[in-house]
Amino acid sequence: MLTTLSGRFLILTVIFVMLAEVLIFVPSIARYRVDYLTNRMERAQIAALALLGSSEMIDEAVEAELLANAGVLNVVLRRDEMRQLVLSSDLPGPVAKTVDLRDPRTAELIRDALVRFVTPEAEVIRVIAEPAQGGGMQIEAAIDTTDLRNALLTYGLNILWLSLVISAITAVFLFLAVRRLMVIPIRSLVRQMNRYAASPEDGRRIIEPGSRIRELREAETTLQALETQLTANLRQKERLAQLGSAVAKISHDLRNILTTATLLGDRLERVDDPTVKRVAPRIVASLTRAVTLTEGTLAFGRAEEAPPALQMIEAGPFLAELCEDARISIGDAPIVVRHTAPTGLAFRGDPEQLHRVIGNLIRNARQAIQATDAPGEIVISAEETPEAWRIRVSDNGPGLPPRAQENLFQAFQGNVRKGGTGLGLAIARELVQGHGGTLTLERTGEEGTVFLIELPREIAV
């Protein structure tokens, strides 16, 4: 029952109703005790006035009967500045406490009532009250608390049973109301969600808001918008997947064709015809770009990269190897490639994947500098902080154009040079994210471009 919404409402209703009854019960007990004592004092006053109105002496039997009917042990009446013992009997014990009903305080009445309610021992108390109908200035009476406590217990049990009945009836009605207004609509909403989840591509299973409860209708409306968007995205992804599969097949066949064409283009360069010699390099360059595009498309369309094989890498030798590979690619171009790293620095990563990432950044920097036909410099630096290892690839090239910065890491959109595919940076970021790190463009402008790789020192669990 505790795991269901209606069951919890039922239990909470019983608890809150009982709490309310307790808050009512405590002052009720105090009020009942005051009424009980006041009633005894009024009956004692009547008995005393009846005795004073008689001119004859009464015997002990009549006096005992008057005290028994009044429910008191003795009666003292103060009249005309005189204090007179009107009715009396032997007390079963000493007077334990005096209760003044003339100016009662609520806190004291509640406290005394609770003490009497839980105290089983009988006591004799002295009660002082104002006489009813002005029958004197003050009336006092001694009362045995045995009957008082029995009356309080009877009254308390009646209140308890009444509270239980009220709680049960209230809980049942609230249970039915909550079940009708909340539980049933929520279960219907859950059933609809499960029905949609079984086939999210089916637009007929999108929920139609129909609840008359505002909050539930808002939830249904929001869910409808979410399901509509999800269905549209799934359809789009399915079409893109089919298109990607077709493109991959085309790219595979096209790569073979272009490779053959490239080999034929290489042979054209050996022809002595001046026109052929002038045109052949351009044909070969175009074919090379086409082959690069198809190979990049195939690489990007394959399954996700394998998880990185993490190990500690010495920064100095690793960066030196990258610089040496870059110098071979640069050839005779006036571009300096160097690295800086603190002695003994080591960072954690997959050497093969990081070599691809940094190599791609170096290649982009080299191509950007070569496009200006001016000397340049590429610097790979490494450092460590308490949170991460940082690797920067900096160049003094012309910087990235604003259009390239908008979709820098988006495949087929973030190409930084004419004829590029935009796949290099997209794959590089994916590889760095596989390490739990980030690849960001730290700054770019006329003074050059800086890419930042951050590798976390702590391994996420």
Automatic annotation (TrEMBL):
It comes from the Bacteria. Signal peptide: none annotated. One of its GO terms (biological process) is osmosensory signaling via phosphorelay pathway. InterPro entries: BphY/WalK/GraS-like, HATPase_C_sf, HATPase_dom, His_kinase_dom, HisK_dim/P_dom, HisK_dim/P_sf, Sig_transdc_His_kin-like_C. PROSITE patterns: HIS_KIN (PS50109). It comes from Jannaschia seohaensis. The chain crosses the membrane at residues 9-30, 159-178. Residues 249-459 form the Histidine kinase domain. GO terms for molecular function: ATP binding; phosphorelay response regulator activity; phosphorelay sensor kinase activity; protein kinase activator activity. CDD domains: HATPase (cd00075), HisKA (cd00082). Residues 216-243 form a coiled coil. Its EC number is 2.7.13.3. This is histidine kinase. It catalyses: ATP + protein L-histidine = ADP + protein N-phospho-L-histidine. It is an enzyme of class 2 (transferase). Keywords: ATP-binding, Coiled coil, Kinase, Membrane, Nucleotide-binding, Phosphoprotein, Transferase, Transmembrane, Transmembrane helix, Two-component regulatory system.
